[in-house]
Specification:
The complex is a heterodimer of chains A (about 290) and B (about 375).
Chain A (H helix, E strand, L loop, with lengths): L5 H32 L1 E5 L2 E4 L2 H8 L1 H35 L2 H12 L6 H12 L4 H8 L13 H25 L3 H9 L4 H29 L3 H7 L6 H11 L3 H26 L3 H6 L1
Antiparallel strand pairs in A: 1-2
Helix pairs in contact in A: 1-12, 2-12, 3-4, 3-7, 3-9, 5-10, 7-9, 7-10, 8-9, 9-12, 11-12
Chain B lengths: L6 E10 L2 E11 L4 E5 L6 H9 L6 E6 L2 E2 L10 E4 L11 H11 L4 H14 L15 H13 L5 E5 L7 H18 L2 E6 L2 H7 L2 E6 L2 E6 L1 H6 L4 H6 L4 E10 L3 E6 L4 E5 L9 E6 L5 E3 L8 E11 L6 E6 L5 E5 L14 E6 L4 E5 L2
Parallel strand pairs in B: 3-8, 3-9, 6-7, 7-8
Antiparallel strand pairs in B: 1-2, 1-4, 4-5, 9-10, 11-12, 11-14, 12-13, 14-20, 15-19, 16-17, 16-19, 17-18
Classes of the chains: A mainly alpha (about 290), B alpha+beta (about 375).
Chain lengths: ~290, ~375
């Protein structure tokens, strides 16, 4: 029997909207997806239980190739984002002072004031055949004809890293700011080289931030639809496109739902593996 | 033939823009001694310590460690280790890994590391805590672990940057004694900076009093206390009453001073003072005798009314106002039984020997 009184009551009141959104917007649709994915349409309005759509995924190399490619590209994008974001976060947390600090932080934030669509369109204006860079190259004589820089993997990767930067910088800055500078000095004083200080003190200290940043960036990248589609064109082969195609173009909800469930399992599996490999716990990463 | 000092500084200075943090300092520290640098915050003592550790380089002058110049040698290559103000123990490592950190960097074998860590923990009186995490330790234990982490590397010099500042009073008193004992058992030369004169006095063989980037005086705690050379040292080391006045009769080492409120006192001075020189007269509260009735003869004597009794156990003090002038003196209250019934408002006689006060030219 629950007893609602004082502190207890306010806790449940605050928890209610959270629970509602979690149940209605996350758990319920996922359960529905799971149910839809496990049925086969026999005739109009008539369904039976079947694993057909999962078999389809296994038997069709195109599907699981796209699936693997999406996973590998997302992991790469996450790692590249981490490599680029770490020095930036270090600079913001430890080197920049006062006004400069907030300016740099703001510079990381400003791109997010425009919608993702507009930001991606910005890349297209720059990179397309008739775009700014192509025109400049021709004008300066570095290229003899129009240069197409869209629709390849490097461009997709650039776009993904760009879109994820802030989500890596923020958790890194917050963990690094909590680090006492004298830890670095102490390690240095005890005989460590710069590289050893980074490896043995700074990285282990920042690990919770690294992990939470990586989880967010990986999830966002894996589930990204706009950037791979617009910058990579129809050859981008991103798994979310397959889901979109099944749901909207083919109107094959059962297949789309199966893909959706597979994507969720994949991302959970990779995050779990990442945590195991880095020896961190999900709890610690979330707490940072 | 003298022994090579563990540390020698020759005319070192450090500028930050136009501000001169350290101003032409020279000193040397003999092996195995406990040397303190005592000064108020902002006096440049931290800048000096960071130059010794190698985190910054002096703009002029030379630092020699065991007779070798160390200019250009980074902190990780200097035979010097530092205990930081907040200790800087690595929170993601256990006690054993913290202490072995320096040995690991020197590529000492794991068995040897374990043996030496166990040995040093034994010596600091905390055997067998290798597996504990840093947050499980008490303040005093952390302190000792931080020192052990440095001493295991057998540095020529251990630098300590006010490591007792964060501890509460009781523990600080206890750690003062422990630090001194640790220094004696390891025989390592300690250079300790602090703004707390009691820490410096209790632990050190030699104390340098620093102010505005300069050393005012270097000497044993007794010398600083009994024979201060500058008004700053007289005011900073121990407690002192300061009276403004003027020389009315200059002699050889002893002068007669007339204070602003007209009292005449006999006192000593270390410098030669001309007649009519404005001076500050320093008189320690604990050098003043209290008498109630008797007509004992002292060189200096005043009659005063007890304004206030500041009771603080063994450190109790009286605030006494001269009956003839507004001068107020702080007087230590001895805890012997004849003074226990002193009351506020009572008239008492104060007296002191001229050798126990000292006059400096007013700055």
């Amino acid at each position: 029997m629950l007893r609602f009184s004082g502190k207890n009551l306010s806790f449940y009141l605050l928890l209610t909207p959270l629970l509602l959104t979690l149940v209605l917007l996350v758990i319920l649709p996922q359960l529905d997806m799971l149910i839809v994915s496990l049925r086969e349409r026999i005739s109009y309005g008539e369904y039976t239980f079947s694993l057909l759509h999962y078999q389809e995924f296994v038997n069709e190399p195109f599907y699981w190739n796209t699936f693997l490619r999406t996973a590998v590209m997302s992991i790469m994008a996450t790692l590249i984002t981490l490599l680029l974001a770490f020095p930036i976060a270090w600079y913001i947390a430890k080197i920049a002072q006062g006004r400069n600090k907030s300016l740099i932080f703001l510079a990381c934030l400003i791109p997010f004031w425009v919608s993702e669509l507009v930001r991606t369109y910005g890349w297209m204006i720059l990179l397309r055949e008739s775009g700014v860079i192509s025109v400049f190259l021709q004008w300066s004589g570095l290229a003899s004809g129009p240069v197409e820089m869209l629709y390849n993997d490097i461009t997709v990767m650039t776009g993904l890293v760009y879109a994820s930067m802030l989500f890596m910088v923020v958790p890194l800055v917050s963990t690094l700011e909590g680090m006492d500078d004298s830890l670095v000095e102490a390690a240095y004083d005890l005989g460590a080289s710069t590289f050893t200080v980074i490896r043995t003190v700074i990285l282990p200290y920042a690990m919770p931030g690294v992990i939470s940043g990586c989880i967010v960036v990986f999830m966002l990248t894996l589930g990204n639809y706009l950037t791979p589609t617009l910058l990579g064109g129809k050859d981008s082969l991103w798994f979310t496109e397959q889901i979109f195609t099944q749901f909207i173009t083919r109107f094959n909800w059962e297949q789309g739902a199966a893909f959706g469930v597979l994507l969720l399992s994949l991302s959970s599996l990779i995050v779990w593996l990442g945590l195991k490999l880095s020896g961190q716990s999900f709890k610690k990463a979330v707490a940072s | 033939m003298s022994v090579t000092p563990d540390l020698e500084c020759r005319g070192i200075s450090k500028f930050y823009g136009d501000f001169q943090a350290v101003n032409d300092i020279s000193f040397s520290v003999p092996p195995g001694s406990f040397f303190s640098i005592l000064g108020p915050s902002g006096c440049g003592k931290t800048s000096l310590l960071r130059m010794l550790a190698g985190f910054s380089e002096p703009d002029t002058g030379e630092i020699l460690i065991k007779g070798n110049p160390v200019a250009g040698i980074p902190p990780n290559k200097r035979p010097v280790n530092m205990v930081f103000q907040h200790l800087a123990l690595f929170p993601m490592m256990n006690v054993g890994d913290n202490i072995a950190y320096g040995l690991k960097r020197r590529k000492v074998s794991p068995q040897e590391q374990r043996r030496r860590v166990a040995d040093v923990l034994e010596r600091i009186g905390l055997p067998g805590i290798e597996k504990k995490s840093v947050d499980q330790l008490s303040g005093g234990q952390k302190q000792r672990v931080a020192i052990a982490r440095c001493l295991i590397l057998e540095p020529a010099l251990l630098l300590l940057d006010e490591p007792l500042g964060a501890l509460d009073l009781k523990l600080r008193e206890q750690m003062k004694i422990e630090l001194k004992t640790l220094q004696q058992t390891f025989g390592t030369t300690f250079v300790y900076i602090t703004h707390d004169q009691s820490e410096a006095m209790v632990m050190s063989d030699q104390v340098a009093v620093m102010n505005h980037g300069r050393f005012e005086q270097v000497g044993s705690p007794q010398t600083l206390y009994y024979k201060p050379e500058t008004p700053f040292v007289a005011g900073f080391v121990g407690n002192n009453n300061r009276l403004r006045g003027q020389v009315i009769e200059a002699g050889n080492g002893s002068v007669k001073v007339s204070t602003e409120s007209g009292q005449i006192f006999h006192t000593t001075s270390t410098t030669h003072l001309q007649q009519d020189t404005p001076v500050d007269l320093f008189l320690r509260p604990e050098a003043i005798r209290i008498d109630r009735e008797s007509d004992s003869l002292w060189q200096n004597c005043i009659k005063g009314r007890i304004d206030n009794i500041l009771f603080d156990g063994g450190n109790s003090q009286l605030l006494v106002r001269d009956t003839a002038s507004p001068t107020q003196l702080t007087v230590a209250l001895p805890q012997t039984d004849e003074y226990q019934n002193l009351r506020q408002g009572e008239i008492i006689k104060l007296g002191w020997n001229s050798k126990q006060s000292i006059a400096f030219r007013a700055g």
